[in-house]
Amino acid sequence: MDTGETPLLQETPVRQLKESKTQRFYRPELDTLRFFAFFGVFVFHVVPNDPQFYQAHQVLPSRVVPLVCAIASAGAYGVDLFFALSAYLITTLLIREEELRGSIDTRAFYVRRILRIWPLYFFFIAVAAIVPIWDRTQHLGWPFIAGYLLLSGNWVYVFLGLPHSIASPLWSVSIEEQFYLLWPLALRRLSRRQLVFAVIGLLVVANVVRVFLVYSHVLGAAIEYNTLARIDSIAFGILVAYFLGSEAPSLSLFSRSALALGSLVLWCLVASYTNLNAQTEVAPVMGTLLGRPLVAMGAAGLLVAVIGAPAVGARALIHSWLTYLGRISYGLYVYHAAGLLLAWHLFRGNSVKAYAAYTLAGFLLTVVFSAISYRWLESPFLKMKERFAVVRSRPV
Hints:
By secondary structure, the chain is mainly α.
């Protein structure tokens, strides 16, 4: 593909430019938000959302159980927060690059994404493919492996459902990769005004596709993993980038706290009343048509609430441990099913104590796996990635 831009193997001319604020865009609070997006998914996978579990073990007062189940189910929407956050960051960085250089170097963008995503992604596919040799409960058939290799694993899920494999979370990486492939090509051809119409178009497509699917009585999985039915959060992330640019919203700490709390409450209400997470049942009509847009709006609300929050008093969001966990959050997301599988072998049992030990061990193992991966697998490629950066987005 010849775009008339800098050849792929040449370094983006960032070293020829003076280091300035226009060449760097890094908000540490977004690393923390990225960690909380992962933590929501982790909670969804480990905290039971079935009231019968709590009744059988009598571990919580009955009046608290519905709230715990709602929070556990809402954790799944951490994926939507990942989508909104990625769309916001990618759009902001590309717009800044265009302002700085006069154009968007799409080939350099693809190299940056490849160096960030592919090393861990393909390494973990190989790990997941050989785990069944050790654990017979794991199954990863060739249709799934082929789907992952073609960066379209989510579409395989639409027709076959989830594999019983530690690789099952990789479906969302496929959706993000599809977005990365197409969005810079579109953005370099759009004016800022046309950008709004593009977002409106994405929202229209998402809603039309969902209407068609729910009235076709498909299973929930056909919507859950369908790229076209899940682009609301991506569209809202782009919209946040359009209206805010590189700036933080002028909101007080109270307003931000109210917006964040309201977004989380909205997620819990959707989780309680829409049954969006039922992948093997027929997708609910009104629950799907209303629930998906509301989840995306909640993700955008959390994003707006956090951008620039440390400057108005939310200093905890840039605590070194939280920002570090955010920087390794890609690994946390990819490895968490493996951490939980190993923890299950170590602490399997029917007691509440055994389950608590399994949960804690699964989290700690996930952090350890991710930290090692970030240091020894991902960091060398991240250093290479910086060679192709025009607007630097990593901490100094």
